Predict the 3D structure of the following.
Amino acid sequence: MKTLSQKIWDAHIVHEEPGAPSLLYIDLHLVHEVTSPQAFSGLRARGIKVRRPDRTLGTVDHSIPTTDRSLPIMDPIASIQVKQFEANCKEFGIPCFGVNSENQGICHVIGPEQGATQPGMTVVCGDSHTATHGAFGALAFGIGTSEVENVLATQCLLQRPSTTFRVRVDGTLKNGVGAKDIILALIARIGIGGGTGSVMEYSGSAIRALDMDGRMTVCNMSIEGGARAGLIAPDDTTFNYLHGRPLSPKDAAWDAAVARWRQLPSDEGASFDRDEIIDANSLAPMITWGTNPGMGVSVSGAVPDPHSIGDARERESVAKALAYMGLEAGKPILGHPINVVFIGSCTNSRITDLRAAAAILKGRKVNPNVRVMVVPGSMEVKRQAIAEGLPEVFREAGCDYREPGCSMCIAMNGDQLSPGEYSVSTSNRNFEGRQGKGGRTFLASPLTAAASALSGVVSDVRTIL
Amino acid sequence: MIPFTPFKSRLVPILINNIDTDQIIPARFLKTVSKEGLDKNLFCDWRYNADGSEKADFILNTPRGKGAQILLAGDNFGCGSSREHAPWAITQFGFRAVISTSFADIFKGNSLKNSLLPIVVSPEVHAKLVALPEDAEIQLDLPSQTIGLPDGTRVEFPVDPFNKNCLLEGVDELGWILKQDADIAKFEGSHPGTLNTLLVA
Ligand code: SF4
């Protein structure tokens, strides 16, 4: 009896020997401009080619502006990085969705939407949110630049086995509660180191009920619980999503692939090293109050009081987070004024995220004190949004609707908070300075972000549904 | 990579839990296309004032923070992004080891590939190290996988045998993987690609 991750692992072993990690074959390698330049330099220094350019896909996302694409990149350092990336892809024969490509987008958005990410695959990317692809039942690891170089050169990755961690989410989500709230609640419970060394497999009726965009949101933040990867067994929802995508198998190959994919789910009775159970019925919209994604509460909850914490270092870290966030211990988080709302990132920039936010904003105006940025995850999402009339909804509500990229998730491209500013963000990290030096981030769902954009304070979307 | 040799050093404590890679090296410094010059931005936002001057009370700006080779950190060090810029910045500053009770997986893997040794110790040993006098030196020996404390006691720490070998010999993983070329080719031969090619002529 095997788990889904064991099945994928076993099918990808290239070489094993005593004392060494397993050498795994990698089916898909996504590369972007920030974590690859030194890897390409390494290949050049050794005189090595990219082994499988046909299993490698490049995109620019982290450092590119989200303004008009016909204009040059104003930041000279980012401009060099992007140009060099496009040149590297060309030199090594890697297909690349460059700045002016009609398929450009965030690496974790484009892989799935192109149909490049498929069940049973191994996927890597020099980015910690690679777990996103696990939503398709693919074993997907975030890797560092040395490993990017290894995979470019050999299409293989050295890995020690992970422990297995099953998260069951049963029940039905209430109106106003979504995928983002599931994962924020899980991380608040287990802590940001809680899943270290493990591959998380999400199961249960509430996970089955999620569409692929929601499943990607859940898997995306597995790393925020410390996990190496997140997984969801493929099912008809997965197959319906993939059918007809540009890189999905076609015709007879499609039928054969689906038959293969149906064998992937964990066997009944397969055992996991750890289990965690979440009751979807009892979940409320979640929001973070602190400086790591585990510091979260339900939106109607209160900021913790360090005095009530026994462990000294934990107490200090809560006190430090509250000081950075400028929050008072024990106070409710609801109603806290904000300056910015960011709807975007590989966690929540897909079409269903934009639809959810637009449904709240439609026919309403955002609070004049709040700057609201909406950043689609890819050119494809942008096209879908146009087809559905979403950009007009956002613009009429007073939002700044921008071009695809990572944008204020990582604040490398000039989209950032000013020191002291508060944002409600649909991204995945609220670390100190993550969205700009001195900026303060409340992580939440697109619904909570949109509701807060209207009121100018942290809001409970359930009150306006 | 240079072979990892035994050494003695003072400890530089930054005893905060969950230090993330955005603190180690903020994202705005990742626009570089080289590995060089990252040390000056190590812990940038904790280390400098808004005007670029050094914050006098941050440990890396004090005599204690300079010239030592071992960082003593809180739990779950290196969580967050996969940026290898984090271990690059740490080693360029002069550190060769980080001691904590736990490390985030990707950071740990990245460190081992850059001659930076992540050493996991028990909370008890960690507390002992925290309590050492400022100028106390500890001995770090990778072949025996031990830390030698000033009182003469030795504490063992775990290291993956494969990584240990790479560190001691100063070889990187890529050389080793390249030697498995026959197996890689065999695997490719027996597993025809299911990914439609992305290549456009
Ligand atoms: S959107 Fe944010 S988390 Fe996702 S890949 Fe970009 S920078 Fe990383």
Q: What stands out?
A: The two ends of chain A are 45 Å apart (CA to CA). Residues 310 and 316 of chain A are 10 Å apart (CA to CA).
